[in-house]
Amino acid sequence: MKKKKPAAAPPPDFDLPDDKESLYFLPLGGSGEIGMNLNLFGHQGKWLMIDLGVTFADDSQPAIDVLMPDPDFIVKRRDKLVGIVLTHAHEDHLGAVPYLWSKLRCPVYATPFAAAVLRRKLKEDGPGEDVVPIIEVPLSARFKLGPFDLELITLTHSIPEPNAVAIRTEAGTVLHTGDWKLDAAPLVGEVTDEAALRRLGENGVLAMVCDSTNVLVEGASGSESDVRESLGELMGRFKNRVAVACFASNVARLETMARVAEKHGRHAALIGRSLWRMQEAARATGYLADTPEFVSEHDAGYLPRDKVLLVCTGSQGEPRAALARIAQGEHPHIVLEKGDAAVFSSRIIPGNERAIFRLQNQLAARGVELVTEKDHFVHVSGHPARDELTRMYQWVRPKIAVPVHGEVRHLIAHAELAKQCQVQQAIMPANGQVIRLAPGPAETVATVKSGRLALDGSVLREVGSAVLRDRHRLMYNGAATATVVVDAKGALKAPPAITARGLLDPEVDAGDIAKVAEAVGAAVKALKAQEKRDDAAVSEAVRRAVRKTIQGLRGHKPVTDVHVMRV
């Protein structure tokens, strides 16, 4: 038998000192990747968490929709955790709170819109909105949590109320930007508080932990007001139904669709539950106040083709979203047919290409005209391009740049840009790396446990757990079961029974199943007398025979279960 490899040693632990001179940054999610943000700042023996988000699984994780950071490190130190501060209401910044809060049990701080969104999520996916202590703080608030003096600074993004967090400590000030862009006309919400950022820079900033998503994009990200104008012009071209797919959280885009529909004598309808949740949160917090009410999907199905504009979920090809169901002809109320149009008012998030193109092909097969960002100006990003990043560095003037919220190639490019902006030092973090920001030059001083948890139905499992590994193997290699009946001495008392789901069809492959059974019988007979009396030895011989034979027949090594029965 092969020797088992020794288990990998656990990562070294890290004890946070309680002196006033030391300040640490520890990402457990969101560094070296886009999404799933969990950032910790450590000072005077206490930890502060900024954001707690999710990301969405791809085809490599069968039956898994949601992934989130493994918070084990801070769970073991939750008595030192002063609170969670949410920068804004996107899923990759607050989506894990319903699933992980019970492990942390600390106050959650959020501005009104993020709090409204979180309460709705807690009611649907978590322990309930009354269980988690959500402390609502106003825009531009300043408040203290333990040794951290925090100030929220209003930014612009693709959702209302995005905030940077200025973290003042005895060891220096850090600006954690969250997600942002610069937009002089965001349509919904306030513009970036440039004055506050300049004041912060004038008073001295030790480090800036900053969004890297669009660092490879030249120029600026563009304005929501320009998208509204362009979409208004585009809608005038269509004579029949129009479906517009966009991110549900982009409240300004929802308002745009309502205004554009009104301009062209149409009624805007929301098709998809997450769109309704978001517009409810927006109206509850004072946004969309002057926007016409949206039509329900039930009523939209009765409107004439030239009088409706359908705002749909599913811009990333999500299989259960509204637009996918419409494309497959499975939506109970909405139909798209030849002569209608579908506008993708969004960008393709890397990794979603296959799902999006599949959806677009399904729509095209129905005779639906497709319009994407390649065909018309229909979308602007919510993240800063290079010119915007440069302006932020000019305002804040940090001594240390810490790029986050990007893949490795983004972090490298961001670090180079920061140096071009005369930043003294740039350090690229990875999830699990403890970075000392002060005193002295920034450096990695420890590596702690990090990883991902998968929401498997209603259970959280570590990605890489035995259950998920087996499921992955089952997806690619199938499963086989062998039942052998032997007497006390190990002689076969009946022909082995073989099933191989996903590999051998009993109605078509009876001959190959017989070959597997024959190989199993030969393997049992070839055992030594002592081995035949040992169930474990019989089981292992049968397992090897099944896998070897099926590999020869089909090229796959199935996950194999063996049942040994003695009579």
Report on this structure.
Helices cover 31% and strands 24% of the residues. It has three domains: 23-219 and 382-457, Ribonuclease Z/Hydroxyacylglutathione hydrolase-like (Metallo-beta-lactamase, Chain A, 4-Layer Sandwich); 224-371, Metallo-hydrolase/oxidoreductase (Rossmann fold); 466-566, Roll (Ubiquitin-like (UB roll)). Helix 4 (112-125) crosses helix 8 (273-284) and helix 6 (224-235) packs parallel to helix 7 (251-263). With 567 residues, it is an alpha/beta fold. The strands form five sheets. It has an eight-stranded mixed sheet with strand order 8-7-6-3-2-1-21-22. Strand 7, helix 4 and strand 8 (134-136) form a beta-alpha-beta unit. The relative contact order is 0.12. The longest helix is centred in the last third of the chain and has 20 residues, at 535-554.
What's the short story on this structure?
This protein is of the alpha/beta class. The chain is 31% helix and 24% strand.
Number of individual domains: 3
Output the number of helix runs: 17
Largest sheet: 8 strands, mixed
Total number of strands: 27
Widest sheet, order of strands: 8-7-6-3-2-1-21-22
**Judging from the principal axes of the Cα atoms, what is the shape?**
globular
Salient structural properties:
567 residues, alpha/beta, Metallo-beta-lactamase, Chain A, Rossmann fold, Ubiquitin-like (UB roll), 3 domains, 8-stranded mixed β-sheet, 7-stranded mixed β-sheet, 17 helices, globular
List the helices and strands and how they pair.
Blueprint: E1 23-29, E2 38-43, E3 46-52, E4 55-56, E5 66-69, H1 72-75, E6 81-85, H2 91-94, H3 97-104, E7 108-110, H4 112-125, E8 134-136, E9 142-145, E10 148-154, E11 163-169, E12 172-176, H5 194-203, E13 205-211, H6 224-235, E14 242-245, H7 251-263, E15 267-271, H8 273-284, H9 297-300, E16 308-312, H10 322-327, E17 341-344, H11 353-365, E18 369-371, H12 386-396, E19 398-404, H13 408-420, E20 425-426, E21 433-438, E22 443-447, E23 452-456, E24 459-462, H14 466-477, E25 479-486, E26 497-501, H15 510-525, H16 529-532, H17 535-554, E27 559-566
Parallel strand pairs: 3-6, 6-7, 7-8, 12-13, 13-19, 14-16, 14-17, 15-16, 17-18, 19-20, 25-27
Antiparallel strand pairs: 1-2, 1-21, 2-3, 4-5, 5-23, 9-10, 10-11, 11-12, 21-22, 23-24, 25-26
Helix pairs in contact: 4-8, 6-7, 15-17
